[in-house]
Input
Amino acid sequence: MSASIRDVARRAGVSLGTVSNVLNRPDQVSVGSRERVLAAIAELGFVRNESARQLRAGTSRTLGLVVLDIANPFFTDVARGVSEVADDAGLAVILCNSDDRPAKESAYLDLLAEQRVQGVLITPTADLAPHLDSLRRRGVPVVLVDRRATGPGQCSVAVDDVLGGRLAADHLIERGHRRIAFVGGSSGLPQIEERHAGVVAAVRDQWGDEDSLTVFAPDVLTVATGREAAAQIVGMPAAVRPTAVICANDLLALGVLQEMTRHGVRVPEECAIVGYDDIEFAAAAAVPLTSVRKPRQEMGRRAAELLLAEAGDDHVHEQIVYEPVLVVRESSMARRSTAQGERTA
Amino acid sequence: MSASIRDVARRAGVSLGTVSNVLNRPDQVSVGSRERVLAAIAELGFVRNESARQLRAGTSRTLGLVVLDIANPFFTDVARGVSEVADDAGLAVILCNSDDRPAKESAYLDLLAEQRVQGVLITPTADLAPHLDSLRRRGVPVVLVDRRATGPGQCSVAVDDVLGGRLAADHLIERGHRRIAFVGGSSGLPQIEERHAGVVAAVRDQWGDEDSLTVFAPDVLTVATGREAAAQIVGMPAAVRPTAVICANDLLALGVLQEMTRHGVRVPEECAIVGYDDIEFAAAAAVPLTSVRKPRQEMGRRAAELLLAEAGDDHVHEQIVYEPVLVVRESSMARRSTAQGERTA
DNA sequence: TGCAGTGGTTGACACGTTTCATATCCGTGC
DNA sequence: GCACGGATATGAAACGTGTCAACCACTGCA
Output
């Protein structure tokens, strides 16, 4: 098959160890041998066998990243951040898409364990499988992404989603909205639950109760399910129909926006929309979307750095929580004046 | 470190070969030994060492996918198709983002070669590096994705982009548009050149010359550069300003749409827009985007299948070309009647 | 009793690399 | 002339697995 280090050595007329030295400590080798070895490498088209290196080294130069939905640009942005750091460290990233399905997730974790990855970055499905513990017990560093660690002994990079939910709700209430819908999800992801909790808290603080908060919980968080939720909202009697919608992510929000427009409901005049994540498409929507911004790429970078740091034995586990920022755009701009009118009425 | 097959053997009181047999040919092993081995595996938390398997086998159970832009949903859809097939074949996918930069591309190809991947799926940067040939010479199967093979001896899965460009242009011309802009790219990707060529061909057929076709060539194909192009278009004097824009991909189209809307140019009444790829966000845009559909996921699947087939030695190289389909949506719906008025005027 | 056959099991070997203790060479200072 | 040290070069050992020829115990048959 392909040439090995031994073939190179023979061709260059040196020993096997010398070739290895040329590859790994070129300065410890005389110019003459080095040149002959390099020439032989070129002639034979020699390529290092990474498996053999790994076997010898006991660990690979790879790192696993498991995401919930590869089609969600939030995760591709995170991935971009991760691979920046990984590239600099000379590591390859194996990107796995669990599709929010525990079965796929655990299959991928097995695979990553067999690959002896240096570590795993994961946004886990709801029930943070015991699988993760078993990985850690085996000494594989794990860093949670967009999900707060439940206990100590683990690193995580997350966002204060309760605050995020609160920001969104406060903004809309301050704008004069009195009936709000929250479009979340039913898969039980804590991130989503917390966003919901934040909205509920804000609503309670301002209104005393949450009677005017309608909650929708589609099974997955996609553009398509966002459209479905919007269709339901549009179908509600005008007297109780929410005048604003908070979505648990931007995909849902885009779906809601599209369906509203399709039904002739003007955004933001008749219905305001707030998304979550602030993916690039949020700003690019024809009615630019107000959204709760998370430092997507930065989260990926930071998570990868934590993972690498975990190799050092003086490592202290860190749980980083970013503060989200509400980015106000057109989709929630109207209503203040009319709302005040309503309030005094 | 972690337990090896040898530890398991000792623990189960069997030989090393028996453990291997339990793992690879369970039926050739007596029930008793099998159970004891499985028990030992569970107790020790044994996980196969993939590097060692690879070293022994000479090849990995991995496959490389190199894309131009991980942030473009077109490629994540392709990736989804690829991993479907890969999963079924028990292969892992290493997803690499070249960012349309030859340097990154070739670094990743080196990496994949060192990993001894079973094959590489790639949408290459413009100058289909000699790197690819060197891979093939080394016996690594390569399948081109969204890019037609230049010669025989290689597999590819592509789309007839000349036809795609033609469809878009014909549609707009038939709708009555007489001044069209093409927003492409300057990186020299053949896919883009062909789309351009298709548009030019259609325009020439219908108008005799291409004086009324304005071409923009931003350096990258993103939402941001789409906005910039639109800003230029909007700034043109009304008498020469195109009434329709064909974009080389949907990201550009979304950018154009947003900027048009921002400037109060109504889409499609004052300016029609046609995108390319038909990513999900195209339909979800507030003015749903007319776009040239490619079978994104199917392309990924098919490419992966071709790659796997290339292992068999009776394999004949195949160059698959899909026919794109124009999906007409709101962004290009208006104008027929007014256009006819204009024409007669 | 001997022999062929069978279902299980064994352990040495090979895969390609890195590492490390050891060997070689050459110049320098005493 | 000799000991010493620095710069290079060497090759055996080890990493964990899969394979395969050899082996074993046992059965059925002649």
Summary: The first strand of chain A starts at residue 62 and ends at 67.
